[in-house]
Every structure is written in C-alpha cells, then in structure tokens.
Design brief:
cytoplasm, EC 2.6.1.11, identical protein binding
Length: 404
C-alpha cells in the first residue's frame, strides 16, 4: 500500500464533492483523547468526532472486538441474522424500556426508520388521516430528505424541491406552542431530550413531561432522538432515564459504535409489529462487525462508575470554562449536561464560534460549534482529568488571542 502521490488537504479540493470545508489538519493517529496529524503535531480531542468517539481513539476493548470479529465473519445481509447483532439487541432491550431493536448504519437512518414506523403504526391503527409529525425548531434529526425536513432548520432542507408533507414545528421548551399544533391527526412528536446542533439546550422538566402528556391525550407516539445524547453522553445510558419520561420509540447511533458506523431504533413489541416483513430494511444494518464493536462499547460504558465520572468531568469543564470567562469575558453562559457542553458567546463575539474553533486548533485542542454563537465540547466519556486540564489550558490560549 505504498503512496505514489502526496495525500494532503489540497487533494480534497481535487477529488471530493465540495459539501464540506475540512480543516487543513489531517489526523493520522489517535490514542485515548489525543490525536496526531501528518506533521506529528499533537491535539487534545474535545470534539469526540461530534459525540461519537465515546471511548476515545483506539480503545483496547473496541480494537479487540473489531479484530476478533474481523477474523470470523464480516457481512451476511439480513437474509440471515448473526450472533453479534442478537447479543447487542438483547443487551439494549435488557437495559432500556424497549422490547425490540432495528439496526441501521447511522443516526439519520435510525430516525428515518422511526418516522416510517410511526406513520405505518398510525395508518394501521388509526387510519390515513392521522399522519402529522411535529418536531421542534432548531432541532436536528439527520440529512435524509425526510429527516432533514423533520429537523427544524430550514437552511438544511431548503433548495431540494418539494418537501415531505404533514410536518410541523413547535418551539422547544414552549408547551403552548406544541398545544397549538397537536391534534388527534398527529401521529408522532419527535424531539431531542437535549437539543445538540440547535444550541445545547436542555428541556425543562415541565416541558418534557408536558410533551408526553399531550402525546398520550392525542394518541400520538413520542419519539426521542437520542443519537447524540445516548450511550452515557449525559451521565446515564440514555437521557430519558433521568427525565422521568419514557418515549415510545428511541433512536441511537453516534456513541453506540464508538466510531464504527451503527445505528439502532428501539421500541415496544406492540409498535414494532407494524414494521412487518418487507416494510423496511438495510443491507448493512446490523452487520457483524458493527454489532461486535457496539457490544464492546455497551459493555464498557454501561457502568455506574462511568456515568458518575461523566458527571464529575462535566463539572471540571464547567468550572474551567467559567474560570477562563472570568478573565476574558467572552461567554454569557456555559450550559449542557454530562459531556455535551456549550459555551455561549456574548454580544461582542456574535457569529464567531468558528473563529474559536480555528484558534483552538492552532493551540492544539479540537473543539466543535453548535451554530454560529456556541462553542461545543463532546469529548470521550473516559477522557483523563489531566487531558481536560491540559486541553482547557490550550483553549485558554486561543481565547486570550481572540479576546486581546
């Protein structure tokens, strides 16, 4: 596998579709919460592949699972099932409200399956009049045409022709807004139990309980998109557990594979029966490699001591970011839960979140944004405390340059 040409950032512009604008940095190696680029520069990873690398880079349990399964069997298609898929499904069912699991390859695919299931359930049980889907403004549910339309950001769904119909958007944390839209024609309400892309916005307890009650009143399904919040990210296996509200359908991805593509839709037996043979499918969904890695992730993450550590590390970030802010006065607040944290830029730095990301990269720490005004942090759930301290020290240098 010798390289006969230079593989640098400029090659991206030559050979890749221009829908991304990637950093000039090309990582080639990762270990734990540290990454090295082509020039062997070291970075501390506070981005986690957008809340995906829940156990950091090259975690021994995941590497071992992939190698072991890679020497057994890779792919069968769903004409047959396989042992890793069955084991992972059993563990997901045993540790959640759900009775049944459908595997896909991504969060968008899991959400697509959830929305199709909700529509099919409503058609079978209540008739074709019950088709409305309600989601929330600033929500994000994926990039397929159905999921991007359900997502509440028109900038992502405009410009592709006529959109799927019977989809409406309420305001997050505004129950009256939902009441004005919901009716007996509503088949499902889809929400993130903490809005990620939309700005790291936590729901109030009254709001999330009210959404559940409204769904019950109107015989609508409640779908929780836990693609970003699941697998320990907020300090419990899934976020719904600490909200006191149980959804009818839950979607999972990102952290579920720790970096290997996998998604899952979880639901009850009564609802699942409406996706009968032939109604939905995925060639790769539930393949043995992905499910073997997913099982290793679940076995490693699903422990009280991991969840407790996530909550402790949350406080390290909040305290560290607040200390930086006391010196430089760049944020209005630091919000979020667990290891999904948003630092909201104040009026002097509006629209400059990307500037903070770029400056942080120059100082050797990888961060994210959530919109134009929020710097987002979604590191490994097992990031060592000393890496948090060092990464925050590097981030402070970036802030100092932008604030000077």
């Amino acid at each position: 596998m010798s390289e006969h040409f230079p593989v640098g950032r400029e090659l991206f512009d030559d050979v890749m579709v221009p829908n991304y604008a990637p950093s000039a940095v090309i990582p080639v190696r990762g270990q734990g919460s540290r990454v090295w680029d082509q020039q062997d520069r070291e970075f501390i990873d506070f981005a986690g592949g957008i809340a995906v690398n829940c156990l950091g880079h090259c975690h021994p349990a995941l590497v071992s699972a992939l190698k072991e399964q890679g020497e057994k069997i890779w792919h069968l298609s769903n004409v047959m099932t396989n042992e890793p898929a069955l084991r992972l499904a059993k563990k997901l069912v045993d540790n959640t409200f759900a009775d049944k699991v459908y595997f896909s390859n991504s969060g968008a695919e899991s959400n697509e399956a959830a929305l199709k299931l909700a529509r099919r359930w409503a058609l079978d049980v209540h008739g074709e009049e019950k088709s409305q889907i309600i989601a929330f403004k600033q929500g994000f549910h994926g990039r397929t045409f159905f999921t991007v339309t359900v997502g509440g950001q028109a900038a992502y769904s405009d410009g592709f022709g006529p959109k799927p119909g019977a989809i409406d958007h309420a305001e997050y944390n505004n129950l009256d807004s939902l009441k004005a839209l919901i009716s007996d024609k509503t088949c499902a309400v889809m929400m993130e139990p903490l809005q990620g892309e939309g700005g790291i916005v936590s729901p109030t307890p009254e709001f999330v309980k009210g959404v559940r009650e409204l769904c019950d009143q109107h015989n609508a399904l409640l779908i929780f998109d836990e693609v970003q919040t699941g697998i320990g990210r907020l300090g419990s296996l899934y976020a719904y557990e600490e909200l006191g509200v149980t959804p009818d359908i839950l979607t999972s991805a990102k952290g579920l594979g720790g970096g290997f593509p996998i998604g899952a839709m979880l639901t009850t037996t009564d609802i699942a029966k409406h996706l009968k043979i032939g109604t939905h499918g995925s060639t790769y969904g539930g393949n043995p490699l992905a499910c073997a890695v997913g099982e290793a992730v679940l076995d490693t993450v699903n422990k009280p001591e991991v969840f407790d550590a996530v909550k402790a590390k949350h406080q390290l970030y909040v305290d560290g970011l607040n200390a930086i802010n006391e010196k430089y006065n760049v944020f209005t607040e630091v919000r979020g839960k667990g290891l999904l944290i948003g630092a909201v830029l104040n009026e002097n730095y509006q629209g400059k979140a990307k500037d903070f990301l770029v400056a942080a990269m120059e100082e050797g720490v990888m961060t994210l944004v959530a919109g134009a005004n929020i710097v987002r942090f979604a590191p490994s759930l097992v990031i060592p405390d000393e890496d948090i301290a060092e990464g925050l020290a590097r981030f402070e240098k970036a802030v100092a340059k932008l604030a000077s």
